[in-house]
Design a protein that fits this description.
Elements: H1 9-23, H2 38-43
Length: 65
């Protein structure tokens, strides 16, 4: 929500997630981020290793009953 942007909530949440993972011995984290969150994650030291492409399936007219 735009009115909550820039308050550090996402950064704090992801920092706690990373701390929790370290305590449990987790070596790698996964985050499927948006264009808004990607720079925050990268400033925190995470590196992008791949991308995903969303797929929106729609039923064709010939298949509708």
């Amino acid at each position: 929500m735009p009115e909550w942007r820039g308050r550090g909530i996402y950064r704090a949440l992801t920092a706690e997630r990373a701390k929790s993972a370290l305590v449990r011995g987790v070596r790698f984290l996964h985050s499927d981020s948006t264009a808004f969150s990607r720079p925050i994650l990268q400033r925190s030291g995470l590196l992008p290793v791949t991308t995903t492409t969303p797929y929106i399936w729609t039923r064709g007219d010939s298949q509708q009953a």
